[in-house]
Amino acid sequence: MASKSMRIIRKKNVEKIQKSDFSKRSAKLVYTSKDRAFLSEEYPGVPPFTRGVYPSMYRTRLWTMRQYAGFGNAKETNLRFRSLVASGQTGLSVAFDLPTQLGFDADHPMSRGEVGRVGVSISSLKDMEELFSQLDLSKLSTSMTINATAMILLAFYIAAGQKQKVSQKQLSGTVQNDIFKEYFARGTYIFPPEPSLKLTADIIEYCAANLPRFNPISISGYHLREAGCTAAEELAFTFCNAIAYADAVLERGISFDNFGSQLSFFFSCDRDFFEEIAKFRAARKLWSHITQTRYKAKTEESMRLRFHVQTAGSTLTSQQTENNIVRVTYQALAAILGGTQSLHTNSKDEALGLPTQDAAVTALRTQQILAYETGVADTIDPIGGSYYIESQTQQLFLDAKKILDDLLQEGGSIEAVTSGSIVQKISQHAYEMQKDIDSGVKKIVGVNCFVADEPASSVFRVDKRSEELAKKNLRELRKKRNNTHVQKALNNIDEFAKAKKNLFPAVLEAAKAYATLGEISAILRKNYGEFRANMKF
Amino acid sequence: MKKKWKASFDAITKKTLQRKEKFCNSSGIEIAPLYTKEDLPKTNDVEIPGKFPFTRGPYETMYRTKLWTMRQFAGFGSAEDTNKRFKYLLKEGQTGLSTAFDLPTLLGYDSDDPKSLGEVGKTGVAISSLKDMEILFDGIPLKEVSISMTVNGSAAIIWAFFLAMAKKRKIPLSALRGTIQNDILKEYIAQKTYIFPPEPSIRLILDMFEYGTKYVPQWHPISISGYHIREAGSTAVQELAYTLMDGLEYVDQALKRGLKIDDFGPRLSFFFNMHNNFFEEIAKVRAARRIWAMEMKKRGAKNPKTLALRTHAQTAGCTLTAQQVENNVVRVAIQALAATLAGCQSLHTNSKDEALALPTENSVTTALRTQQILAYETGVADVADPLGGSYYVEWLTNKMVDEAYRIFNEIKTQGGVLKCIENGYYHHQIGKSSFEFQKDVDAGKEIIVGVNKFAIKEDIQIPLLKVDQKVLKIQISRLNQVRKGRNKKKVEHALSALKNAALGKENLIPFLISAAENYVTLGEIRSTLVEVFGEHKESTVF
To answer: What is the pTM of this model?
Structure first.
């Protein structure tokens, strides 16, 4: 049957038939029951979890609608948070500005011009208290996109919770804390790989013992994908990093089942609708496989791949921004059909700058419409069994596994930082993608086809006074706090670092004493040094 | 392993209630938490696109060789206004045109008829004579662009205008591609723009089948439409059943007249609504293809083109909200995706401001971009029937087929389609569904984002397209010119010939074309036909 179809195709214009996906995974014309003949029985909530990590999925609880937000100073972001919660958002997600991510206080000379620009500026516990003012931390789950300084910010958060009389056991949320993808794609690293990995393991260890409801890490494929890698590579690179973290914790003599269930993941949802759905399904299957073969996981909780998804910022266009609502809708639907646990939908104007309030609301409404109007959450894994999807799922599983096995052979993530192998692969694909956009092989509506003349859109701007205000707050804080106390706490961190102890308790004490982000980071910088990217390529 | 899943599912749902007591789609079909292989008979697994019963699509290659036609419904004001919009849409990459007519045109009245007052050019373009038709398609390459016309009661006359215009431009009728809605049964059921009683209406339709098959072979002389039935408040399965039943009525009547099924069958086309419930809509269209293929086969069809149902789809206007209009971009995008996953042949995506009034140029562009993004960026068109095999979608498709046959039987026991129109069956059934839905909305069981949940305070203020008030003036003066400029004798002759033919059994289309060519107006033709056929009055049984 297929061969006859192929003849029809050959007869018509063959050149026109091109798989639009960039991993160049070939798609056949028609998929039939033969394409899923390999499939054994699979059920949601049962390993290998291809059809979903939980037995009841969205029948009992929808995914968490979690919009990433943050700009200016803590007060401004607090207002946005409160408005998002009032609009029906069910989880918070904090974006931090670059100085915060790199461990500089708002008044540090390195911070000039960057304070509050791409996220909220947080320099001390004081700012963190302000950020969650009138928001109940015992009820909210908070995600924090923070990596090199994750321990410090999480310490601020715990301390802010304690001010609200919420114990750390009650806190729920996620801290990104995934440093390897910073070296490979995102760029906000501070220390060299080895001490970074130590800090990551410290956080995982501390949370396993003290914050049972918190995900101490969100191992992220998102930024790798945004930088240009393929869907299969996104899975392989992410799991390669996950293995590096898990191995580091295991070395401390902690069993996998003690922390495995707290590992969480974060993927992108790019433009190829079915490939993305298949990717999420393959990811669950692959992680379940890794945890059982490599880590001999015993409890099902630690075999479960739970993940957050964000729609792909790189697919948005600054031209005809309304089109972005459409793109985000498809990506959001793919994430839901892929069984995500939480979702950030991008705002239509994110290609231009930080989202305006209106655009942020529409992005949230997109999730609400999917949740309440379309019925797509009414049955578990609704596309399960589709010949095409099942075949793509298996293909992606095998492709990602192959890439991962090769990477592990070459020494895994630490080795990849030194050799630059992952970065090279990413930039190779990014280059090919750009070439295909330029030549029009890859079509982007409104960019290289269906172009229109249009007036510029209005863009959200951060108030310039944010920086001044943040500086003033810091000056006051440094005057008001007990500086002997602060100094003692900072010295304590120094001692812990030298003794190679888990730093978390010392950092938490310093946070409570109102030591600033920059002060704590400076001690760590002194002990660990700074990482310089290897500029081989 | 299923036991293990079921045990944990039960344990969880004992502790945490499911989000709803019962998960149902619009058709009242209850949705289970999980579907597996066990939910499907073996028959699903052997289906292939382009092969009987065509559940997986009418063509083997589907969108791999040709994308669906992006066809935005447009029309307002005068023929000049709409001509300009058409040219804009073609320039923006639209691949087919679709004409909306104003109410007077749909009902067969000239723009200067007193009955037309206040309605001229309002919800579509005003067409009163061949002259308007010439202006409407001026400069549009009719050999390359396929034209769809949404007109029913006056369809035969408007089509005659169109064919006369093509002839005048020396375009061979055999080169014309397009569709005329011409589905009178659904007008009696839901939309209400009928003129004549059912019997002569069906005669005109069959005349068009016959004429089209012979002289305009690339044209679809009918688009059997569920769209309006759905918009009137029916469920998905009602839409499915009523529409296919209407289609079978036309087919059976045509067979009775002696037309051959494989002659006219390949030119029948359909038009379905794309509503909110994503998988239900996909299953609906798959079910429609399977049922149609089986029914045509029963009636002796052999040609695969007769067996394979081809359909246009439009996203559901009734799901759009006046509140937070940007949300409509989202709704339309989801509905459009459902249409393409269902394998539709052409698609109209609504504009976000259609809940408020006629769409503006900007919002029309976004609606079109929605289709272009689907087509060029998402990869959903790369594989035929990508959802085929999904346990849920296949199960739901089977279920929709069964439910549609249940409704077929109900209609048959009541005496068939015409009888059901007469006795108010449709009116009653659709009214009931619509009432239940509204009740659920009011009770908050059905959530409409921005309306009964997540509402915000807002000034509803978006740029709306205002129809130029000059349209009536333009139409009146053009009609005067037409009446002055034409050959009166020829007009009288054409009308009397038409009347004689109507009294007899001849095919009326050649007479209509000849009247059109002599610039007889829509209203004049209507009056002549009404003299013979009478007008339809809705029975008020209840």
So the answer is: 0.94
